[in-house]
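Narrative of activities, Objective 1.

The group set out to show that a structural description can be obtained from nothing but a protein's sequence at a throughput compatible with the screening campaign. Below is one input-output pair from the validation batch, recorded exactly as produced.
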Amino acid sequence: MTATPGELLAQRPALRPGTLLSPALLHGPATVHLIKEPEGGAAFEVGAKEYFLISRLDGSRSLAEIGEEYADTFGRRLAAAHWQRLLQLLGARRLLAGAPPRPAPATPPGTPFGGTLLRGTLRLVADADATTARLHRLLRPALRAAVLLPLAGLMVAMEVLLATHLPELAADTWWLCRRPVALIAVFTLLWLSTALHELAHGVSARHYGGTVSEIGLRWRLPMAVMYCTVDNYRYLRTRWHQLAVAGAGAFANLLFLLPFLAWWAALPEGDPTRRVLSGLLLLGSLQALVNLLPLPPLDGYTMLGHTLRVSGLAPESGRFLRLCLSDRPAAAAYPRRARVVYLSYGVGSALLVLSLVAALATGLSFLLVH
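Output recorded for this entry:
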């Protein structure tokens, strides 16, 4: 039996526990929010007005009360048909309290291997979230500002010290490149640092309330690296928590280098072991710092997106720049914040790439000459 408008507006629906709502994100010319179904379900975008309504479905307020808030904020009252469409959408996605959860997918047959021998993935643990939860319990005493801030200070001091010895480090790294056995040892350590980088994302996510869906090995021969898929980081409570999860990998990379810095500093210049360590310190620092550049798919790009509260920063910047060249009225119709963000990132990222290419060419020229 269809409810009358009065009966409909008297209802006090609530979202299912575990439904996640993101903060406001700029996406193209629009401001959107992400809503994610519980139990690892799909996410979808809604506009600011829809979010206003959905975020207030807590079971304590009637639709009539929410409608009054909506009218006060947006200057427009909602008809019963609008509420019916919204509730039907949420019901179809099983987002209302009392809705049954989606059936669990059947366990896929076969091994955790996917892809081919040349390009594929291998899941390394059966329950990635439980694995990172155990790691988090082990490391939790160290995940405090009183511990992390001094370590961050040591890392900054390390990079300053290494910068003052850059000619020595570059020369030693070039020497290392002509020593295959030592070079393999250094790259093995860097691979281990990459694995710690991925696990650090997962542990940080667990610390701030996120989840981890998969830990595994991804390869595109001859390269093979570990990966850790972090879920729900877009829905963490604060921007700082999102930045901490995204930056945890580079933090782990630099932390990994600190004991080797002490070993390097204790040896005299010209010592073969010091020269090997020079290569490790230089390449390891580059591994961490390059990953902080605001270019996709690096962590620095993710961090910039969190800082600016922007979804799809690079593709939307490219789209906006193309509109500036081909359809200026459409580009001018973007909100001022969108125009500033997309133009600044589009131009800035292009200049950054050109600078990196120039720096790489200069570095290669130096090594070839020396």
